[in-house]
Specification:
This protein is about 35% helix and about 20% strand. It is α/β, with parallel strands linked by helices and about 500 residues long. The chain folds into 2 domains: about 270 residues, Aldehyde Dehydrogenase, Chain A, domain 1, CATH 3.40.605.10; about 180 residues, Aldehyde Dehydrogenase, Chain A, domain 2 (3-Layer(aba) Sandwich), CATH 3.40.309. The protein starts with 18 loop residues before the first strand and ends in a 15-residue tail after the last strand. The protein binds 2-aminohexanedioic acid.
Amino acid sequence: MAKAKEAKARKTSVKTYNNYIGGEWVKSSSGEWFDNVNPADTTDIVGRFPRSNADDVDRAVEAAKNAAVKWRQTPAPKRAELLFTLAEILRDNKQRYTEEMTREMGKVVKEAGGDVQEAIDCTYYTAGEGRRLHGFTTPAEMKNKFAMCVRQPVGLCGLITPFNFPMAIPSWKLIPALVCGNTVVIKSGEDVPLSALNLVKACEQAGIPKGVVNLVNGFGDAGAALVEHKDVRLISFTGSTKTGGYIAEQCARDNKIVSLEMGGKNAIIVMDDADIDNAVEGSLWGAFGTSGQRCTASSRLVVHKKVYKKFVDKLAERAKGLRVGNGLDPKTDVGPVIHEDAMQKIQGYIEIGKKVDKAKLVTGGNRLTKGDHGKGWFIEPTVFADVKPGMRIEQEEIFGPVTSVVPFATLDEAIEIVNGVKYGLSSAIYTQDVNKAFYAMQELYTGICYVNSATIGAEVHLPFGGTKATGNGHREAGTQVLDIFSEWKALYVDYSGKLQKAQIDEVEI
Ligand code: UN1
């Protein structure tokens, strides 16, 4: 469910935005709209967006199909030139995109700026692949025969993006798809349609040809139409494990390529030799940054018994001091959560932590409703201590500003706790001992692992993704993302002038 509600009556003061299909900005075929609501102030409607259906998806797919051959045949360095121009447009508009993002998504301005910056970084970095997209040569087993491999585009890509990184995550998918020579249809997160629209508008300004990038706004039914469309060759999805499971099943029917980035239950290990103040700062940032609404959020803090009390006391004191409020106010540390359903889910987990798990609530736990807080979806940064492995708040993704402190005695025990969940996105260890750091790096079964920093802060030129229920084996970002958006083609050139049979002919030595 989205924070956005369908507009009952068209309010003229609210700006109206359209879909982008075949290079035109068009209304949905249903003529219906939905409101993009500011989660810090629900009286503030950021914009009105088309509520698209399967017809709109059909039109967008048709446009992407029509643009495919020309775009695929455009040399990759030329495609990349347009992407470098795109990066410059994004950089020049960073301030506006940042403020608009905070308004629609809630995260504090500094973090929204980081989100836009991540899209800029991704665009510059991945555009560079236009002059690489390396294949390889290898010797053939026959004489006078040449063997090599190149990447080829996969075709039409459907990109389905979440609310928590409104510009960074669409860019992680869009830019590699384009540099590899694919055309795309984006179904952006219904809670944050403006940031994806800003990215797509910048593509138009950069001169990316009509039909190469298409944007359809709307809800799950539009996403489902994209997933089920026979002409879509690939779905790249970031979001919940439940929706990802449905997508994987649908894609399997048509042999679509599918890349999934889903949940996390990430943990920081704090050893007894760690710099505790640094570990507390990292834990605060990892647990409460983006109001805990990151797949990479530090939702578990696994702390050595010898430093446990000291750590919990310091963490609770610092968490209490965090200012919760509108992300546009520079004094705010923690913004709102995205919508009422998220609030209900988070409050539900706080109840489970107190009543079912019987963990110790050391700070937070309450929804904030007084004064300006009453206008939006605000909740206190919440810390549970004395959490045991296996408790629900220790196992399940909460996706809010709630973290659990779990005590341990040995590093092996800590590693078992960290690995003892169904997800495997990100992990971290605070220690001054190089042996322990390397041992943890080896044993933590996650896609990302940090030493002496929190579980968040991935950079765009390294692979991003996770093990187990976090994903389905793919990695976004880095050069590894090219393996999602291109397929290998093996090429053999026989210049012997005669029939040569691999595996069969004897080769004279
Ligand atoms: C996410 O958590 O959904 O590593 C993405 C980070 C960011 C990306 C997070 N660069 O925290």
